[in-house]
Amino acid sequence: MPIRSLYSASTTHLPLLTDLGRAEVLTGVANAASVVDAGIRGRIADGKVVEYAGGGQIDVEKVVTAQPDVLMTGGTDTPQYPAIRRAGGTVLANAEWLEGDPLGRAEWIKVMAALTGDEEKAAKVFEQITTDYTAIAARARAAGGPPRCGSCPGRCTRAPGTCPRAAATSANSSRTPGPSTRGPTAGTPAAWS
Questions:
Q1: Strand, coil or helix: 38
Q2: Residues 65 and 98 in one domain
């Protein structure tokens, strides 16, 4: 039976829900101030999602009283989780942020889908992510290495405007440095097409 209520200890879980179109399942977040998704922020403002661990301290009574179907952890343990389990709560670890491979991290959508009953949708979403990632990775390989700042000699990989050496060179030079000959200039959309 799909879950109806999820408390999430990590904001990295939230895109898994939104990509499945299941943000309504979310009823609790550890720290509301960390949420950046506008739709979920609106649900917090409307009182549909509560904060249960403000200041980093889990309010066991609040969690036990609310009885979410699942409290999804960020993959770490705290002394409060056993207390929640003893009170009948389901605590499930999700450590997708530890995945070293971007597609491995994205595949955790299938875990969320197993909880929400959206396995078919998750398969389609993951297939699209895989297709998009594969295309972007191919473009990156074809670019011949990391972008260059465009102002420095050598192998500077800082973004334009962030390289202190380039700033010093520009300040001491009357000519404007030309484009890099070592690859596309970072931040130039035409260079990536």
A1: helix
A2: yes
